[in-house]
Amino acid sequence: MYFQGYFSMKVTHAFYIFIIVILLAACSSTNKINDNFDYFHQQENFNIATISLHKINILGLIDDTKNLSPKEKKQLTDQVFRAFSERVNAENLITTEDFAEQIGVAQYQQLFIAAKENRIETMSQLMAKNTNKNRYLLTTHLTQNIDHSEKNLLNNFLSSCNYYGRSIGLTMSILDTQNSQIVWSGHLDKNNKNTQCDDNDNDWQNHADRNNKVDGKGLLAGILVGLFITAIIEDNTAAKEALSANELTPMFKQAVNDFAARLPSFYN
C-alpha cells in the first residue's frame, strides 16, 4: 500500500511538472518573430565579382505607408547601408548622400519618383545620363508598418486584452541599370504581435485556489501553479516593457539583415 501510494504521488508530481513545461513552451512561442519571404529571386550572373566591379548605389527608403518622417527615413536608410556593408566591402556601396551628390539633387529626385512608381526603364535612362557609372541601384520599399498597441484603446472597451508589437512589410530590389533588369529582389513580412490578457492570471489563480482546497497533492499542485503564475507575470511584465515602445527600428534592422544574408558575398 505504501509503495502504491508513493508511486501514485510520484506520477502525479511528474504529471504536473510535465504540464507546466508544456505551458511554458507554449507561452514562449507567442513571442516568436515570424519571418516570411513571400518571394525571393536572384539572377545567376549577379554575384560578388560584378558587385565589386560595378558597385551598388543605395536609394533612400521609399515609405509606401506614408507615415514616416524624413529623419526616420534617413535613419532606416543608414541601417540598410550598415547591414549590407557587413556582407560586402563597404567600398562597393555608394551611400544615399554620396549618390545624390554625384548625380545632382534634381536628377536624384526624378530617380526617386520613378523608383517609387517602379518605372524601371525610366530609372535606367536616368542612371545612364549621369557621370556615376556604377551599374546597380538598390531600392527599399516599406510596404507595411503597423503598431499593434494603437488598437489597445478600442479593445480595452471590449475585452481585458492588450496588444503589443509591430508588423512590417519590406520589399528590396537591385536593378541592373545597363539592361533594365531586376537581378535581385524579394519581399519579407515580419510580425512580433503579442496579446496580453488579464483574465489569464485570474483563471490560473482560481485554478490554484481550487487545488488548495483538496488534499496534500492539491497543496503541492497549488504551489507549482503559484510558481508558474509568478513566472508568467514576470515574463509578461518583461514583454510589456520590451514592447511598450513598439519601435520600428529593431524590427526593420532584422528584416534588412535577413535580406543582406541573401546578398552575394565572399562569406557565402
Describe this structure in words.
The chain is 54% helix and 22% strand. The chain is an alpha/beta fold. It has a domain at 32-195 and 246-260: Rossmann fold (3-Layer(aba) Sandwich). Strands 1, 2, 3, 4, 5, 7 and 8 form a seven-stranded mixed β-sheet that branches. A two-stranded antiparallel sheet has the order 6-9. The chain is globular. Residues 17-32, 201-208, 223-234 and 238-245 have low confidence and may be disordered.
The secondary-structure class comes to: alpha/beta
Secondary structure: number of strands: 9
CATH architecture assignment of one domain: 3-Layer(aba) Sandwich
Question: Spans with pLDDT under 50 lasting ≥5 residues?
Answer: 17-32, 201-208, 223-234, 238-245
CATH class of one domain: Alpha Beta
Integer average pLDDT: 77
Query: What level of helicity do the residues show?
Result: 40-55%
Radius of gyration: 27 Å
Largest sheet: 7 strands, mixed
Please report the number of helical segments.
10
Question: Globular, elongated, flat, extended or rod-shaped: what is the shape?
Answer: globular
End-to-end span in angstroms?
65 Å
| Succession of helices and strands | HEHEEHEHHHEHEEEEHHH
CATH topology of one domain: Rossmann fold
Topology:
Blueprint: H1 2-29, E1 34-42, H2 48-54, E2 56-58, E3 62-63, H3 70-85, E4 93-94, H4 96-103, H5 105-116, H6 120-129, E5 136-147, H7 152-158, E6 161-164, E7 166-176, E8 181-191, E9 194-197, H8 198-212, H9 216-243, H10 248-260
Parallel strand pairs: 2-4, 2-5, 3-5
Antiparallel strand pairs: 1-8, 5-7, 6-9, 7-8
